[in-house]
Every structure is written in C-alpha cells, then in structure tokens.
Amino acid sequence: MSADVIVLGAGMVGTCTALQLARRGHSVALVDRRAPGSETSYGNAGIIQREAVEPYAFPREWSAVFDVAFKRGMDVNYHLSALPEVLPRLARYWHASAPARYAPIAQAYSRLIAHCLTEHEVLMAESGADDLARKEGYRFVFRTSAAMEEAATRATRLAADYGVRHTLQGGDELAKAEPGLRQRMAGALHWLDPWSVSDPGALVARYAQRFEALGGQLVEGDAASLRAAGSGWEVRTSTGPITARHAVVALGPWADALIAPLGYRLPLFVKRGYHRHYRGGPGLQLPMLDAERGLVLAPMAQGVRITTGAEFARIGAPGTPVQLAKAEAAARELIDLPDPVEAQPWMGNRPCTADMKPVIGPAPNHAGLWFNFGHAHQGFTLGPASGRLMADMIEGATPFVDPAPYSASRF
Ligand SMILES: Cc1cc2nc3c(=O)[nH]c(=O)nc-3n(C[C@H](O)[C@H](O)[C@H](O)COP(=O)(O)OP(=O)(O)OC[C@H]3O[C@@H](n4cnc5c(N)ncnc54)[C@H](O)[C@@H]3O)c2cc1C
Predict the structure, then answer these.
(1) 12 lines ligand 1 (CB under 6 A)
(2) CA of 91 to the centre of ligand 1 (A)
(3) Number of structural domains in the chain
(4) 16-49: per-residue pLDDT in tens?
(5) 0.85 cut: is pTM over it?
(6) Based on the number of CB atoms within 10 Å of its own CB, is 253 exposed (0-12), middle (13-18) or buried (19 or more)?
(7) Does residue 228 sit within a domain?
(8) Is 223 in the pocket of ligand 1 (CB under 6 A)?
C-alpha cells in the first residue's frame, strides 16, 4: 500500500493533521496502535482554550519553587525516580520562563492559539460534531477576593494585549450561574471565548470518521516500525507495509521514543495528569478551575470530570494519584460528587517542551520526516490549527501562521 503521507499517532494532533491533509485531496494513512483519541486526547479537561494565549510558565518565585520541591501544594507532584532525567529539562523550562525570554514565547504561542476556535469550528461542522461542544466559556472560580483581584488584573492585561474576552462575576451571580455550588465563593472570572467538549475522545473519533469519509486510511500499526525506504518512509501495519514520501510524527508523549533513536535530542518531558468522573450530584453548567487549589472540574457525558495538575513521573511508572485524592476533597467542598464512576483513576501525559512551544515542522536531518508534537497543556485546543500549519508546510504552501518559532532547529 502507498500514500502521500503517513501520520503516526491518532490523538487530536495526528488526527487533525491527517484530516487537514485529506481535505486538500492528499492520500493519507493515519497509523495508531489504538483507536483514535484513546490516550491523552481522551483524558483531558475538554476545553478549547482560546484564553490560553500565554503558555504555562514555570513558577519563578522561590516560594512557589519550594512549594513544589516540598510537595506542599496539590498542583504539582513528582516521583524521585523521574528526577535524574527530567531535572535538566525542567532547568531549561525554568530558564525559558524568565520574563524577558517568556515574552516572545507567549507572543508566538498566542498567534497559534488565536486560530483554535475557527479551525475547530470548520472541522466540527464538517464532522457533524457540533453537538459535543458548548460555546459558553470557562470559569476560574475564587475562594478569596485577593486571588480574584490578581486574576482580574491579569485578565485585563490579556484583553488589552490579545483581545481575549472576560467578565467578572460576584459570589451571588456565580451562585445563580452554577446552582450546584455548595459554598459561596468570592466570585469568578468568566472567560467568554473558550468552548468545552462533553466527550474529548468522541470529538477525535468524529474527526477520524470524517477523515475516513474523505478516503483516508485509518490503520493499526506500531510507529516504532518506521524506517526510511527509497525516497520516503515505510511503516508496518496490520494490513501490511505502507510507504509514503512524507511521514509525520504526531505521537504526543511518545514522540521522544521514536525520534531519539534517529539522533534527535530535544528537551521533551511529560507532565502526568489524572482524572476521574463522578455521577449523581447536581452537576455543573460550565467547566471551572478552582484557581487557588489547581484542579479543573468539567461537566462531561460521563459525569463531572475532575482533572489534576502536573506530576513528574516516567511514562509507564505506576500511578500515584495523591493529587487526585486532594483534588477530590477540594472539589467536594464546592459541589456534591456522590459516586465515582471508575474504580481506578485515568492517567495520561501532557507532552511538554522546555520552551513551552510545540514542535511543528520538518525534522532537521531527515528529508520527508515531519514533527508535530509537544503541545503540552493545550494539544486538544491546538490540534486543528497545528494540523493546518503542518499541511501547509508539507504542501510547500505559504504557512497560515509563521512556523519559525515552532521549528525543531530552535533547540
Ligand atoms: C489531565 C489533563 C487535562 C488536560 N486538559 C486540556 C484541556 O482542557 N485543553 C487542552 O487543549 N489540552 C488539555 N490537555 C492537554 C492535551 O490533552 C494534550 O496536549 C493532547 O491530548 C496531546 O495530543 P496528541 O495528539 O499530541 O497526543 P495523544 O492524544 O497522546 O496521541 C498520541 C497517539 O500516539 C499513539 N502512539 C503512541 N506510541 C505509538 C506507537 N508506538 N505506535 C502507534 N501509535 C502510537 C497513541 O496511541 C496516541 O493515540 C490536558 C492534558 C491532561 C493530561
């Protein structure tokens, strides 16, 4: 079998890359060992984060760094066994987060985020997936006025700098908007632009169905079998070998496992997150970040999904859901969550880079090999825009966003 392009990895990023190419008439094989949207793109909080114009920086205040080191907060945890590998990369992350270096990173990031809604909108409409999206924003809720004021100041700056919209809601207004809240909060910052998805894995599956309807081949295979063949690439699949002139690595947290043996030493690492669903309570109208505790509660088809912050652990290391236990206790202060759905929490890995930007572009030393990974906290948001940019570059068309900041050569 042959195709124009092999896309390795059918998460949100790979599926959108394959779909964007198929929409332009290219023959594409989308290869995964599992069904589309079964991994990280299944387990996230489902928010299409138009407000996330600035990527998640490493805290610079020493008090926050000590909180992490001594595991004082619930937003960060780590395994000692992961530290030898991850610490040098975290040092680069910390370095990139210094204000002077962070400013251009945020500028570049915001230029891709700016297209997240419009690109999802097109794909959702074509895929018949509008029923999965709620287009009413995302709330940060606050227990104290001081925290709310600080967030409001930042939101005002983001509105001026990037045009992202918000309103502030007092405690009474929030209680009316979210009648399930058990305690009176100081208030909320309601980001008006973001969308939320009631079943993130299902959205990827719909995009994959649309890809197949356009003639794309969805095949089961192991990306590790990729090898150079003739003037292109070959991968072994359950339906036999597939060759193509181009291959795209869209393996999210597993990208490093494929590219390191090819000689690429990029500063990649993962931030593990956990989730669990709860049924039976009053539920929520919109997703909310409990800003002072660092957990997100999102209304999903399966119930209210609680997602946790970052844990530094090796991919595949046994789960240590201590953050989820704390997050569940904090969430229960906010709403009634009677029945956990899963016996064991889900866990997955945000694919991160040391400078917080994804890697989108050609592999520097291999013709016809392309990278599209490292979308960290916003891969669900960025899949369609990132896929479009990849398609522009593979076609040799003028890229719709300047791709220079995302080049693998920057490291
Ligand atoms: C708790 C949590 C909450 C989050 N919340 C949000 C949010 O609200 N909004 C947002 O935008 N982002 C969010 N994210 C981040 C987002 O989920 C990720 O950035 C995104 O899912 C990454 O997508 P991906 O396609 O790169 O990776 P994945 O979805 O992990 O896809 C990679 C694919 O590669 C396949 N694969 C791996 N190895 C092989 C192999 N050897 N052979 C074949 N196939 C292979 C896997 O099976 C998988 O399907 C969150 C993440 C977490 C963990």
Answers:
(1) yes
(2) 24
(3) 1
(4) 999 999 999 999 999 999 999 999 999 999 999 9
(5) yes
(6) buried
(7) yes
(8) yes
